[in-house]
Amino acid sequence: MSRTVLSRSVMSRRSAVLTAISGGWVLAAAALIAHAGPLDPPAGSVASSYKTLSEVEPRIAVGPATTPGDSDGTPSLYKITQPGSYYLAGNVTGVSGRIGIEIVASGVTLDLMGFELLGVAGALDGVRVTTAGVANVAVVNGSVRNWDDDGVDVSSAQGVRVEGVLASGNSDAGIRAGVNAVIIGCTARQNASSGVSSTGGISTLAGCTIKDCSVSLNNGYGINTTSGCVVMNCSVQANADGILVNSGSTVVGCTLYNNSGDGIIVTGDCLVRSNMCLNNGALSGSGIWASSSDNRIEDNNSTGADIGIRVTGTGNFISRNTCSGNTTNWDIASGNVCLVVLGATSGAITGDSGGVSPGSTNPNANYTY
């Protein structure tokens, strides 16, 4: 076959391919036109498709136009009077003689949005619920600092949640809550600097849960609760005293370090379990002190205190705890269930076996080591 004939054959095939592609585009365009509908707009005015600010952000920004304060018996810079979700759009600086944000309604969530409520000399609380009987209030996600009263005071409300709040440098408690409150992931640091309160860090009433909080350098109790509370997985260090709970409460998985008074104080009917108590009680305090009856104290470790574990009440069950390096390791009154064994130390262990029995096979024995 000659080159001329071959060239024409190739060109013929290319032409057929291009025709097919072109035809495909025509069909596709026709299909688009068929499904696109008419190009002419319908009769009448064209409605706007934009969204309002309330549709884009269905919450209320705290400010003078939306939540104006007042000068009544509890003067406030801003005041929330209706249920709803509120948020900060920027930092807020306090005013002397006024609460930063006052809440008088139930069903309120206040999101600080990572901003700061900054107190000034003479200012009152950063956030306060001022009406008794208010319920279902949440204060979350921000910093409340240097107020001349409490950082956050929601003690008049029931069923409160305070989460992700950093309360520091306030003259009274960092966070103060009422009954059935939940306080999660908060930091309370260097509060009660004026010494006007026995509670510098977190203070609650009955039936509360305090979890995953860091409480340090407060002039007073780090955490102070009443009855039926749970304190879990908290770091409490360098306060005047560490944790105080009352009857029917649980303290579990906490670290108490370098509190000048007692590390953990319980009255009666409490569970104290799996806590680490180190260097508490420099002012004649204890790692753990149970002052009443029917407590279960187990699996705790207390070192470096004036008294490791002190039980002055009767009828308590004390098991599987360890004490070491305290001035007095154990101070247990008569009438309690408790076995203390001086643990035996072993030589060096290398490989797959070695060591000696700690000194008892009793599963509930407590050890000095």
Query: In total, how many beta strands?
Result: 36
Q: Which structural class fits the helix and strand makeup? A: mainly beta
Summarize the amount of helix as a percent range. Answer: 10-25%
* CATH-assigned homologous superfamily of the domain at 69-315: Single-stranded right-handed beta-helix, Pectin lyase-like
Task: Describe the largest sheet.
Answer: 24 strands, parallel
CATH topology-level name of the domain at 69-315: Pectate Lyase C-like
Mean pLDDT: 89
Radius of gyration: 33 Å
Going by CATH, the architecture of the domain at 69-315 would be 3 Solenoid
CATH class of the domain at 69-315: Mainly Beta
Coarse morphology: elongated
Report the uncertain regions: 1-11, 16-34
Determine the strand fraction and express it as a percent band: 35-45%
Q: What is the CA-CA span between the terminal residues? A: 103 Å
Helical element count? 2
Description:
With 369 residues, this protein is mainly β. The protein has a domain of 247 residues: Single-stranded right-handed beta-helix, Pectin lyase-like (Pectate Lyase C-like, 3 Solenoid). The protein contains two helices and 36 strands. The chain has a 24-stranded parallel beta sheet that branches. A twelve-stranded parallel beta sheet has the order 2-5-8-10-12-15-18-21-24-27-30-33, with no helix packed on it.
Topology:
Layout: H1 3-36, H2 53-56, E1 60-61, E2 76-80, E3 84-87, E4 92-93, E5 99-103, E6 108-111, E7 116-118, E8 127-129, E9 137-145, E10 152-154, E11 161-168, E12 175-177, E13 182-184, E14 187-189, E15 199-203, E16 209-211, E17 214-216, E18 221-224, E19 230-232, E20 235-237, E21 241-245, E22 250-252, E23 255-257, E24 264-266, E25 271-273, E26 276-278, E27 286-290, E28 296-298, E29 301-303, E30 307-311, E31 317-319, E32 322-324, E33 328-332, E34 337-338, E35 340-342, E36 366-368
Parallel strand pairs: 1-3, 2-5, 3-6, 4-7, 5-8, 6-9, 7-9, 8-10, 9-11, 10-12, 11-13, 11-14, 12-15, 13-16, 14-17, 15-18, 16-19, 17-20, 18-21, 19-22, 20-23, 21-24, 22-25, 23-26, 24-27, 25-28, 26-29, 27-30, 28-31, 29-32, 30-33, 31-34, 32-36, 35-36
